[in-house]
Write a structure and sequence with these properties.
single chain; 19% strand; five-stranded mixed β-sheet; two-stranded antiparallel sheet; 2 domains; 5 helices; Glutaredoxin
């Protein structure tokens, strides 16, 4: 009886060990910054939000119709946004893509000072003071950048700083597919 018991004990230990090894390799193959989004291939959420620079202007989801757009979520309280922002300033000098800023859960005065001191690369700046639109997009924090197709569907979400390497490896191939009709 004791040999049968030790056989089962050893089997359980081996199965648990194999499970841990599998979990280890799964964790190594996944980027922890890649947070899943329920919006991929879904229409952007419906919204009606004011512009940061022109409060009389109301933006809606129709701003994404017929244009490939990068929606960059940023805030004055976001340290990583300060390191990312020079890339966006440079990006808009050479790109034909529409870059829209989503100022997320911020104070208006601080957001305006941020753009004044860092430059404004955005064609439009959505002011989401309450953070409600960010929640609708599934934003965890800032910076995050969404690639939105001309059909106003979210195609990709990147959590973290975008730089030339990230853009070339993550965004550019998807933009090319969108331009080819995929």
């Amino acid at each position: 009886m004791s040999s049968k018991f030790s056989y089962w004990k050893m089997t359980v230990v081996v199965v648990i060990f194999i499970g841990f090894i599998g979990l280890f390799f799964w964790a190594l193959s996944h980027d922890p910054r890649e947070l899943p989004s329920q919006l991929i291939n879904q229409p952007v959420p419906e919204f009606s939000v004011v512009d940061l620079l022109e409060p009389e202007v109301i933006h809606t989801q129709s701003m994404f119709n017929e244009k490939i757009t990068l929606l960059n979520v940023w805030a004055s309280w976001c340290a990583a946004c300060y390191s990312e922002h020079p890339y966006w300033n440079q990006f808009t000098q050479t790109s034909q893509l529409q870059l829209v800023g989503l100022n997320y859960n911020d104070k208006k005065e601080k957001a305006l000072r941020f753009l004044e001191s860092q430059g404004n690369p955005y064609k439009k700046v959505i002011f989401d003071q309450s953070g409600r639109l960010g929640i609708d997009f599934g934003v965890y924090g800032a910076p995050e950048t969404f690639l939105i197709g001309p059909d106003a569907r979210v195609r990709y979400r990147h959590v973290g700083v975008v730089n030339s390497k990230v853009f070339a490896t993550k965004f550019k191939p998807l933009i090319n597919k969108i331009k080819q009709g995929f």
